[in-house]
Amino acid sequence: MDLTKFRRRPTCEVRIGRTTIGGTHPVAVQSMTNTDTNDTAASVAQIERIARAGGPIVRLTAQGRREGENLANIVGALRADGFDTAVVADIHFVPEVAAIAAQYVDKVRINPGNYRTDHGELEALIEQCRERGVALRIGVNHGSLSKRIFDRWGDTPEGMVAAAMEFLRVCRDRSFDQVVVSMKSSNTRVMVAAYRQLVAAMDAEGMRYPIHLGVTEAGNGLEGRIKSAVGIGALMADGIGDTIRVSLTEAPEHEIPVARLLVDHFASRPGEFEVLHPERYSPTEYRRRSHVTVPVVHTEPHEGFLVLEATSGNPTAELRAAILNLDPADQPVVVKRRYEDPSLETLAVKAAADLGPLLLDGLADGIWIDAPGHAETEIRDVELMILQAARVRFSRTEYIACPSCGRTLYDIETTLAAIKARTSHLRNLRIGVMGCIVNGPGEMADADYGYVGAGPGRITLYKGREVVARNIPQEEALDRLVELIRSHGDWIDPPASER
């Protein structure tokens, strides 16, 4: 493979307010507010914080007519303050609100899972967007496929692609090219497979719409950053992606520096866009190239492993090519790279984006981050987080936590911290912490337990996909969650040092 030249997947240009994505434009970063869209002052203030952090595109939920109409006040106040930030309306459940929002915003995002194509609604929205110069995002979520799609395809990458292509064909037939498409999931393997299969499907039909990347419900802290970097990095390493969001259960402005770091990390990367071995990209047919079932980190014994160290500016492509050229082809491999970054967060994001895709695709069997400026215990933790984000080795509790938005029915950031404090000592459990029911039950479909906002001050608890307690008071919910975990035999008492 020629590592001296790079090209992103060619896409058409889409204008979102004063920001243009696709074509030769740089990858744009964005975020979403978590304020009440009816609260003009709070929403404007948060958009301005995101803009100052470097985010030119900001999305707000518009779950009802009142929120849709208030977008006019938000946009007006934002412009009066001198901000030209592109404003995006996020529509769920009530398609009529899209028509309201399209009067005021720069882009409308609709979810095929709860938007119809058989009543002329999409065609009418396309014409309205065309008239005002409003862009449209077809935003597919793994957790909210329509019943019709789910009954045929299940909650699979193939189902996600089918949902997206149905809507994209309508846009193409209406000669409307101001369209962006996304395929989000909290499962990195599903997310990467869905995007790669979407690219193949669009290319087969000559579509060149820009792609928005994101791992939804990534959580917070270093783990959330690493999980996002593995999924987004795998696609950016393929040349896929025109705009990205790093979804964190934190203040939205915290997302921008992480997204910016990923964009800058790939901006001057040499290499060619080439999707290799597509059979590796289906999570239902995932297989490893070696016999190793428990990938290793650098502090563990790895006799019989071949250590391959990246030295070029495109470590993912360099290591992928080296692994695919091995003889014997199934020899176990540890992928290694040196990082000089003084910031542990920066190092972790870069390493996750560089090395995580090789683990995600089943090509590597271990990871070795050479970072002389950091403690060995810190680097071991980062390596284990990357293995977990790539879904090849689980060593800690995983939290599928949404970043929250104006639909969120409680303080999810504080609640997540409280849930972590009570449950982080558990091993090999996945706990979903979701703000509302829009994507909540679906996105946490592979979680062992779920904590979902059901109404103001009310929580619904899940065991897997099954509701076990509805609308319980939030002040009781954490204790009830612990009781639920105990009752199913998944609880262990924390070590004495953590009590």
Which secondary structure elements does this structure contain, and how are they paired or packed?
Elements: E1 14-16, E2 19-21, E3 28-32, H1 40-53, E4 57-61, H2 65-80, E5 86-91, H3 96-101, E6 107-110, H4 121-132, E7 135-141, H5 147-153, H6 157-173, E8 179-184, H7 188-204, E9 212-213, H8 221-236, E10 243-244, H9 255-267, E11 296-297, E12 306-309, H10 315-324, E13 333-338, H11 344-360, E14 366-370, H12 376-389, E15 398-401, H13 412-423, E16 430-434, H14 440-443, E17 449-455, E18 458-463, E19 466-473, H15 474-487
Parallel strand pairs: 3-4, 3-10, 4-5, 5-6, 6-7, 7-8, 9-10, 11-14, 12-13, 13-14, 15-16, 16-17
Antiparallel strand pairs: 1-2, 17-18, 18-19
Helix pairs in contact: 1-2, 5-6, 6-7, 7-8, 8-11, 8-12, 9-11, 10-11, 11-12
What are the main properties of this structure?
alpha/beta, 499 residues, 38% helix
Low-pLDDT runs:
1-5
Which oligomerization state do the chains in this entry correspond to?
Answer: single chain
Report strand order across the widest sheet: 8-7-6-5-4-3-10-9
The SS-based structural class is alpha/beta
Counted beta strands = 19
Q: Would you mind describing this structure in some detail?
A:
It is a single chain. Strand 9, helix 8 and strand 10 form a beta-alpha-beta unit. The N terminus is likely disordered. 38% of the residues lie in helices and 18% in strands. The strands form four sheets. An eight-stranded parallel sheet has the order 8-7-6-5-4-3-10-9. Helix 1 packs across helix 2, helix 6 runs parallel beside helix 7 and helix 9 packs across helix 11. The longest helix has 17 residues.
